[in-house]
Amino acid sequence: QKEVEQNSGPLSVPEGAIASLNCTYSDRGSQSFFWYRQYSGKSPELIMSIYSNGDKEDGRFTAQLNKASQYVSLLIRDSQPSDSATYLCAVNWYGNKLVFGAGTILRVKS
Amino acid sequence: DGGITQSPKYLFRKEGQNVTLSCEQNLNHDAMYWYRQDPGQGLRLIYYSQIVNDFQKGDIAEGYSVSREKKESFPLTVTSAQKNPTAFYLCASSDRRSTEAFFGQGTRLTVV
Prior knowledge:
The complex is a heterodimer. By secondary structure, chain A is mostly beta strands. Chain A is 0% helix and 55% strand. Chain A is built from no helices and 11 strands. In chain B, a hairpin with a 6-residue loop joins strand 9 and strand 10. Chain B is globular and about 40 Å long. Chain B starts with a strand and ends with a strand. At the A-B interface, strand 5, strand 9 and strand 10 of A face strand 4, strand 5, strand 9 and strand 10 of B.
């Protein structure tokens, strides 16, 4: 079983729509959860971190965490073509081991 | 400017050679990581270190070695035992409290 799983996509949404990205993880003891954005050929950029159950909003981004169901999601409101990228979910394991999912490709069509 | 610096940006290796990738951070972070990314793939953990003089193997450590003699530095050596080293290598560091990790700009290694 993969430790952090994401749908590879591509997920295509029209400009202005809400993009919903999902991630599940296997270790119930995980405490820290992150979303990174990676443009082609570039290194990942941290966009959201979440540590407790519920929602966390930052501008057009909302991260949602449900530890009982072991999933974390990212919502992008008013999607823009510049949001087109690969979104990586990362989970901090016990002992500070940071594990990534394979990423979801998002395409925002104008 | 605070940040993580990886060098070189591009590196070419001949068959059978060892090469060392540099990673330096001035963020005073305790933890440092090395990842490998192949085209169209996610990040796979090679090695990570939580404190000076200590490091742990990740999921794909075979053919790689690291050292952590200074808090600021975490160099990665790709040895000749790594049979398919062509990839994008990413170094990251994180604060012990927030555990948020930040990346360098990466090194593209190509075997010629």
